[in-house]
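Hi! If you just cloned this repository, the fastest way to understand the data is to look at a raw example. We've pasted two of them here, unedited. The first protein comes first, obviously.
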Amino acid sequence: MSERDPYQILGVSRTATQDEIKRAYRRLAKEHHPDRNPDDKGAEQRFKEVQAAYEVLGDPQKRAQYDRFGAGGPAPNVREWNMGGSPFEDVRVDFGSMGDLTSIFEQFFSRGRGGSGRGPRARRSAPARKGADIEHVVEISFEEAAQGTRREVLLRTADGATDRIEVRIPAGVTDGQRIRVRGQGQEGAGGRGDLMIRCLVRPHAYFRREGLDVLLDLPLTFAEATLGARVEIPTPDGPTVLSVPAGTSSGAKLRLRGRGMKNERSGQRGDMYAVVRVQVPREVSDEARALIDQLDGALKQQPRAFLSWAL
């Protein structure tokens, strides 16, 4: 085949990014794959060139070594290079002068011989690298994070097609948590990378979360906190009735065991806490004021008695 450098083979400039090189490799590998061109004898040879070029440009270290020494050096013969199928025979690629080429092309020689190369410096080839991971952000509600949900993700492929991938988001996912979907990332010589789903959980109007526990600020009247009451409150599982003990102070946390978030993977379940907020009226009538004064005198409370030592 013609002696060309890997940039010419992949049709990219020397300033191309690694992503551009990967896209070019993916497009050309599909285009010239022998299985897609059964009647084209030249397709296999072009496919070999593309694979050989990507072995150098797809690896930043090998690419840097090639860029450093440039073209015009020795032209190594790559024979019987096996990429997991039948051996490729008589493949000659000119990648220019790259200093000590042995360390790079030993991998090619060893592939054709089941891991044994020529000469004392031959060694086992490094495994081919997988493609890069892709991150995709999805936004879900607090309720969806509590119960689990599904999302359809649309990904654009290098050849312009659209992949539709349904992703299952487990119950208990936290804000910013990533979910790995294996084998749905970018393609590479060693297979496809993974798709990373990063979940953004929208804040709730009245629930907030601490680990697996869920907190709810619960407004109570002075009478309800003093005398006790039964009030209906929301939970992640739906409404329930909460018993408020008599004499509950503002700031007290009333616990509902097992009503928090569920971690689907571990099976753990948090609790829910109703945080009491006693509502004090800002305006009272003269009649109400008189009754409050009368009540205060009857209760004879001394809430600051413990501060008397500092006076």
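Ok, and the second one:
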Amino acid sequence: MAYENFPPQMLPPGSPSGRVPSAPPGTIFVLGPEGGYAVPPRRYTLLFGRDREDVHVPVGVDDPTVSRRHGVFTCAGADGDWWLVNTGNLPIELPDGVLMLTSHKRIIGPGYTPLVINSSKRRSHLVEVRVVDGDDLHPRSTSGADTAAPETVYLLSLQERLVLTALARRYLEGQDAFPLPSAWEETARLVNASPHVTKFWTHKSVANTVEDVRERLRRRGVRGLTRDEVGEPVGSTLSVNLIRELLKTATLNAQDLELLADQG
């Protein structure tokens, strides 16, 4: 479908994640709780925020901490990208916890991207975004199909899985709101207590194993796993980013805790 045959149009309430009309690649669908808007790739400015009368997509209309014009999507033309600019006071949170502050600008890539505005009143406002790519042109129902494995799962040896499970124990247990990786000494202690251990581990050997896995993922194109990318001070950021990638791809899951001895 040519973008000329798909005019900008309003959307009824509902999620663009699974129910969008046929549209040319590059079309953006933006939806809030009261409905939304769809625009093909063309020169356009699409607004969302609290002022129902002055934006395309109302969001947080009863929450004065949401700005009247909280965000703007812009496209330069038919071959251009969609850019998001935060024009509000509160940050816009992207997947993986990335925060766009006031005046921050970012390309929104193809696929589904949820945006969250967290209010100071402990309220959260969701703006759902989908940019159409080629795969969206031939959708098929999968409701009756078997659950498929994630597209990306990283292969780990048993000993690597044991070390990374110990490192990510607090994440896998799900009891801490803001978990952190285990310290190297604690990781080594947990590994050595496991019935699956095949050698004695020190804090240096577990750190080296984690570094080997991190480097392997870096070569696969995963970002945020080197000192140059995260900057100083590094702290535990590299381990945090590694753990998040392994959890996000379901390479590690809570069942892996069974590899560790009972810590009770």
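That's it. A detail worth noticing about the second one: The domain at 3-134 is CATH 2.60.200.20 (Tumour Suppressor Smad4).
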